[in-house]
């Protein structure tokens, strides 16, 4: 049977949603691992990652049930949600890839000023204090504070990795955005196909 058939469309859609399920569980596992080993203490960051993982898991579950049962309503809502996710994710991925160095610095500074717990994690893990300046009266968890050597500022250190991280995130986001538009196309085609086991005379 060619891949335009009912069974192939169903199998491809199930495989795609199994991939989304694995990715969602991986996101939740990474967040739990990070907070369990003390790498991340920011509940806001962990909460966002876990929320994205749960949201992706629920979408995959809806798509998987709709594909197995050929449920028209579930497949319709799955297709609409996946299309909206594609639009948002594609836009964010393109923005990550398009940011220049100055814009990256501004974005990092905004994040630095608005996330105290994440700021503490960065200072502790990168052994630096302050973003562009550091006041000795400010709290810093870096080990360099206890030594005789002056602490490095965090902005230059973060800047070395920011471009690579944004390109990586943008590339991964683009990859999954294309799998999402593939899922929308597969769902649209699968909804309009008739199950030959349910109505064999439809193909005679």
TrEMBL record:
Disulfide bonds join 129-144. The keyword Membrane applies. GO terms for cellular component: membrane. It is found in: Membrane. It is a multi-pass membrane protein. Signal peptide: none annotated. Keywords: Disulfide bond, Membrane, Transmembrane, Transmembrane helix. The keyword Cytoplasm does not apply. The chain crosses the membrane at residues 12-40, 46-68, 75-100, 168-188. It holds the Pfam family Tetraspanin. Belongs to the tetraspanin (TM4SF) family. This is Tetraspanin-13. The gene is TSPAN13.
């Amino acid at each position: 049977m060619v891949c335009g058939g009912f069974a192939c469309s169903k199998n491809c859609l199930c495989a795609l949603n199994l991939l989304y399920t694995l990715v969602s569980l991986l996101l939740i596992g990474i967040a739990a691992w990070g907070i369990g080993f003390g790498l991340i203490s920011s509940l806001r960051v962990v909460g966002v990652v876990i929320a994205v993982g749960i949201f992706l898991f629920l979408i995959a579950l809806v798509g998987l049930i709709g594909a197995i049962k050929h449920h028209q309503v579930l497949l319709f809502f799955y297709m609409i949600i996946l299309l909206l996710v594609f639009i948002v994710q594609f836009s964010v991925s393109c923005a990550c890839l398009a940011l220049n160095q100055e814009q990256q610095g501004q974005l990092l500074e905004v994040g630095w000023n608005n996330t105290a717990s994440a700021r503490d994690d960065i200072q502790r893990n990168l052994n630096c204090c302050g973003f562009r300046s550091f006041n000795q009266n400010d709290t810093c968890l870096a080990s360099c504070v206890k030594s005789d050597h002056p602490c490095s500022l965090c902005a230059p250190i973060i800047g070395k990795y920011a471009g690579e991280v944004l390109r990586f995130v943008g590339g991964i986001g683009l990859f999954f955005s294309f799998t999402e538009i593939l899922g929308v196309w597969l769902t649209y085609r699968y909804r309009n196909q008739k199950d030959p086991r349910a109505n064999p005379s439809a193909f005679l």
